[in-house]
Design goal:
mainly alpha; globular
Amino acid sequence: MHFSYLQAIVTGLIQGIAELFPISSLGHAVLVPAWIGGSWKVFSTSSLYLLVAVALHFASAIALFLVFRKRWFEILGGTVKAFKRRNFRKVEFRVLWLILVATIPVALAGYLFGDFFQRIFAKPIASALFLTLNGVILFGAERLTRRRHYAPMEENLAIATRVSTGQALVIGVGQSAALFAGISRFGVSMSFGMLRGLSRTVASDFAFLLAFPVILGASLSKLPKLAHGELSGLWGPVFVGCIVSFIATYFSVKFLVRWFKTNTLIPFALYCLFFGLLSVVKFGFFN
């Protein structure tokens, strides 16, 4: 199968930018090649393209960890101290508990229905429909919660104080929808958090932390397949794509952390609605 360095660079950019921007990296990884056509479209319908996506997701996970490394070291270190002192009211232990609770639904959904999601992965019309739905979810979350404001608080403390176990579970269930290419993992997690009573700032902060174990876990579960030699001859482009994905993820997350302190999901919602509906017309009526 042909996969050029230029295609790898563009795919890496799509993954890096769209993974944490609430516009769905998987949806764009399907739709952009379908729009452009040619050898890239052919390659995007193969099983090898899914392996490339796994590698790019792993690069994004590393970048995401580096951005929040201080927070993660605090959470893990605080959890160890909580066990040593048997003080399970520590903020860091509480935050890790909430992340685990919110990760369980998507892990179960991926395990039970993974083959189904892989079968519909490369279908542009499905991605177009789910991208449109993603826009509706983002827009609805903002419109239904636009008057909600809370006093600022230290990040881990805000999550530990304002996110309940029930809210974390609902956010995790919502995050499971991102297994459909076109639904943004970050966007749906943040939207469900806002709809369950969280402020935009707390919802986005929790969604950022929640993204790392999910992306890492999904990547690690598929990485053994990369060692079987199926990508033989494509390692050069895949490596370049991973570097681009890492860099794009790092800077996009840095940007979004600042963005959601004062700005809304509305621009991303409008983009998803526009590109999603345009793609529905393209692949539903003229393909």
